[in-house]
Fold this protein.
Amino acid sequence: MILETVIIVIYTISLIIIFAYSLSQLNLLFNYLRAQRKKDDAVLFNFKDPAQIPFVTIQLPVYNELYVMERLLDNIALLDYPADKLEIQVLDDSTDESFETTRNHIKRLSDKGLDIKHVTRTDRSGFKAGALKEGLKVAKGEFIAIFDADFLPEPNWLQRTVPYFKDRNIGVVQTRWGHINRDYSLLTKVQAFALDAHFTLEQVGRNSKGHFINFNGTAGLWRKQCIEDAGNWEGDTLTEDLDLSYRAQLKNWKFKYLEDVETPAELPVVISAARSQQFRWNKGGAENFQKMSRKVLTSKTISPKTKMHGLLHLLNSTMFLNVLIVAILSIPMLHIKNEYAHLKPYFYVMSFFVISSMIFFICYWFMFKSIYGGGFKQFLKYTGMFFVFFSIAMGFSLHNSIAVIEGHLGKRSDFIRTPKFNISELKDSWKGNKYLKKNISINVIFEGLLMLYFGFGMYYASVVGDQGGDFGLFPFHFMLFMGFGFVFFKSLTSKA
């Protein structure tokens, strides 16, 4: 009974952590709904008065972006802002032929009168954080806009964001990501679904109540003074944006999130690219929990509720580890449930945690409705999308859990960029992209084994016990089987 007790304890702790996180999401939903009814009375610069228009530096940190550099530079050149108040820094760490083509394109734009500079380094120390820090040394702007290579801001983007800095306490203005290739494949639809939840429910829900939010690494602006006051960019985590965001807010700088300003971007269309991005984000989240959690807990200037939301925010990626633990232990728990009759009261209590899934379902529905509208047909579409999303998210749980464990243990790794493809339509192809990995990770084999494991779980439901089976966990195991199957087969066919 010792092994069974250990399994029950670990299973229960993971369920409780997931439940606590779901309750925080429900609180963010309430915040989000209240924020929708609140009028924004922020003070703004009056751009009709030229004297109030501040100088802005745009930073474009890039590394081997052969397929999207021309699109990026041409798009940035279209931004509507006084030429004498704008400079563009292309922070280029590239080591391939894109370096030369980028330099030539910058020269053409410069010859047309654009204040654009090609900022290069002799090494990639600090990776993206190092490039941003290097550019900041010579940046002329009072405010720093940052765009990754796959982002395409609208021409009026600066006109809609810079005015909010009239409030001297605001250190960051962040905008919502859009998705130019949302409908390219099931993979891009699932990624868009997850990001939409973050950029509506979570960012608005936290920001509206003054809780910690994060600059998302791109599609936002910093006050240069805020970056310097918070200690400047640091490259000791894989999510330098989350790190600096927390350091700035612990210094009492305010962040302004603009849900109504959408900045289009390209989603990874190949699962190997999505895996790379997910690994960096989730490991970086765990690294930042180790780096920032004590500072959040011991701060004397923030409320207990903000501390709680901050800790759960930093533990966001760790939820994948708890999901994986619950998933793997669910089959032994099915056996224990049917072998030890005296534990039935415990399992009645455990059924309460189904509410966690219901909470996520409700919260994400409001996100979906805010973007696509309501109605019965939309609800049916949402229901299908939610279960697909949930299944594939669980299918990524092994991959992301490894990232989380490495982050908590302090294992160092390089900043691996996400390959860009310049894909926005169904007719566009990703094949032949030189930046794609050709090898298949050993983790893919374990994902295939987990697919078979949860397939066994579905079979075991029909034979366990002496009452003709127990199908209570069958939907859960079916979703896990489909999720791990999707990740496994996609990884094989896409050369993960």
